[in-house]
Amino acid sequence: MHPTRWGAPSSATPLPAAARDLVELAFGLDEQPTVLGALPTSGLAADLVASLRAVVGPEHVLDDDETRRLRTRGKSTPDLVRARAGDLTDAPDVVVRPGDHEQVAAVLAWAVEHHVAVVPFGGGTSVTGGLVARREGYAGLVSLDLVRLKRLLDVDRVSMTATLEPGLRGPEAEALLAAEGLTLGHYPQSFEHATIGGFAATRSSGQSSAGYGRFDALVVGLRVATPRGEVALGSAPASAAGPDLRQLFLGSEGAFGVITAVTVRVRRRPATATYEGWRWPSFDAGAEAMRTLAQAGLLPSVIRLSDEDETALNLAHPDEVGAAPAGGCLMIVGHEGEPDVVAARRAAVTGVLEGLGGTPLGEGPGAAWVHGRFDAPYLRDSMLDVGVLVETLETATFWSRRAALHAAVKQALTASLGADAIVLCHVSHVYETGCSLYFTVATRAGADPLPRWRAAKAAASDAIVAAGATITHHHAVGTDHKPWLTREIGELGASVLRAVKADLDPTGILNPGVLVP
Amino acid sequence: MHPTRWGAPSSATPLPAAARDLVELAFGLDEQPTVLGALPTSGLAADLVASLRAVVGPEHVLDDDETRRLRTRGKSTPDLVRARAGDLTDAPDVVVRPGDHEQVAAVLAWAVEHHVAVVPFGGGTSVTGGLVARREGYAGLVSLDLVRLKRLLDVDRVSMTATLEPGLRGPEAEALLAAEGLTLGHYPQSFEHATIGGFAATRSSGQSSAGYGRFDALVVGLRVATPRGEVALGSAPASAAGPDLRQLFLGSEGAFGVITAVTVRVRRRPATATYEGWRWPSFDAGAEAMRTLAQAGLLPSVIRLSDEDETALNLAHPDEVGAAPAGGCLMIVGHEGEPDVVAARRAAVTGVLEGLGGTPLGEGPGAAWVHGRFDAPYLRDSMLDVGVLVETLETATFWSRRAALHAAVKQALTASLGADAIVLCHVSHVYETGCSLYFTVATRAGADPLPRWRAAKAAASDAIVAAGATITHHHAVGTDHKPWLTREIGELGASVLRAVKADLDPTGILNPGVLVP
Hints:
Chain A is of the alpha+beta class. In chain A, about 40% of the residues lie in helices and about 20% in strands. At the A-B interface, strand 9, helix 10, helix 14, strand 16 and strand 18 of A face strand 9, helix 10, helix 14, strand 16 and strand 18 of B.
């Protein structure tokens, strides 16, 4: 991973010709250089570095430029724009790599003793400023990299659970489970780089959430290291033993503790999988079909629906959507599982979709979606290379508010950015009572893109909260969403978060400034 | 409802002849009188009663004997035994009946000002001491009866949600929803008397949880009055906007606030319903079949499995289990929904169960179960009348620990109570990763049954925690389970509960001594 781009530096590719033509048509090309900025001098006192080395071993405390550079901020477009401009002011002083729960706990004890800020680091894929912690008032800032906690600790084939360490990236976790014939089925767009710990800490949701559930629905147990000691939760799938404290650590974004093990529900690897396209005359018609399936208990494993604009842009790349005819809205429907179960479910779903006016497009669009499902963040970098700022934001609401929310966010973004901005949307996750909306925005970057983007993001966030929707369905709060979090959960909800934080992290060393209002 | 019995006084019935014969055979008959004890003098100062009357109106502050008597403790067997012996020492000083959220908030403000303990009261069906609050150190103890908060506030037919007030009892809520063609599908054994607020505050689970979900899974929004103000949560079905604070108020047992509205997912009323019996050669074989269904995504709406002893006792009442042949273990399987969905699901489930060695018993046992599904608590009173103490306790764990948990709890109860105690068990709720176990114990009451029962309950609770299971799957913590709650969630988990309590209820007026360790 390179601080200025998504993924490994070797994965950087120039913009495909078709996309480059589109960009030239829409915005004009404005090639942007990247500045490899200088790192600030590591500010952690030498005796503190020495004592930290004693905790985890000298080889696991790193302060070379490249390591610090790669742990600077996350991967929001503002993060990328600042990194491309050479601004590395948020770099950690050192990167520490504990090897197990006990070493994580020891690092936290060291940080409390010396009042050093600690930023837990998994895949570094936050897009909401979750890695941009406050350093003022601390003796230094340490990136606590969980890269060495990569074990599959336990597989319980009877209960169909697995206990995973937090540093496992998506493909690593799936590979370990695949060797057992199992899968987690959690495929967010960040899958290739994000980690198990990050999935849990941010309440991640994957592209197959309709079939496998959000990550927080998969978690049955957690082990957490906090400045005050260990928390271990999860004695049953469900319980009435007071509030479900697991749901307090899921979404805690490193502010309450460091998750050191996650026990998740697993499933047998699907024997078969099919992904197909459906065309709908309108976004409303497609969304109503999703609602019908969800409320009939007939959700497929994957279901997504692009609005008219997103569908039209997708169709400008014929190689990516197969034989889909132009117009309307594209839905992707995927079924995974045992062949007989898939066949029965697919038949039932097809019957409903045909009855509601959907047009089947066959497996071409499905294959194109599978092929490109993790690609968008790479494309975002290539677009920045030619002067186009691309960013995403997402929300969720109940079905009855969906259409108004879609219109309000689109209107807020367009009003803020100007008519030449492109605003696309899709429904990415579906529930019985509602759905998420995922927006992609493209606009000319210009000389100083961040103030303009921040104003647009604030306008969209205001529209989201005004519509009664959530400020984030699966990107988490970080630092970027904090003002709207309080509006969503109220002053008293924010007060509860502060009380829990004060109890578990009384000196405030954990991810200062992140999540907690 | 009568303080010494379950349900309305008019529902008190003598023990059926067959049961009476069984009791005589097993324990001998020992007819026990009930003493209608004297109430302690209401201890709340006259000026406080007057100021409370000003808050809600004089007609809604009640201190007559009958009203106070009916709000004294809950319905655990220890609660019943104490009430039958005339011990009403825990009676509230007065009963206050606010009419809406604002009046609930005003009562809490009054209680804070005068340092009066407040016990939220819904259906009064707690079986874990959830209504036995501590009164020492307070100017008085008030039962906050939610009986006037009985409205269906909103129905969102698009999102399929309904907003209900907390004082609605199960049948009242279902009747309001039925008028809209909807159902909640939540049928715990306490259904006839327990309330929406109580279901939420205790993380209730109903007999159709396999098909409809536990109550906490139905809740998408909550409104709560706390001593520090209002909390309103629920902007989307799911969110990544920090920890899910809804899950902190679900299970808060009146200790963090008073739930004044609950928004729940609803479904269309099922057009058809079938309930049938299956016989399994052993409890293990039946439980394995349940696990197979759950992990194949084929759970019916209702699924329950009695162990050998519970099955044998049921079969001693041939009228209650229809044509079931003797021996083995009885499973009840129910399907509810649209006819075509039910037919397809029933065929798939039947195929799996037959393949695993189950013997179909037809709809006779299903009809008997439906007929008697809410009866056990009434029978408990009739058994106490003839000197037999009957009590239940329940837990949940992951599938791999089920058999060991069943054996350990049974062994602990038998060792504590003696070989002539009857210990029955059934699996009442099923998940992909595990299940609940629900134990029923019958033993001679004798002259002073409570110390003996408390020792047995402690032994069972120790065995539950030692087995790594939860101290309660759906009965909640109350006062009875507190020592084991800390063992389950750890000292730090308990500390978090105290921190949240201190934040929302800084003077500790809400249900003192309940839930929070």
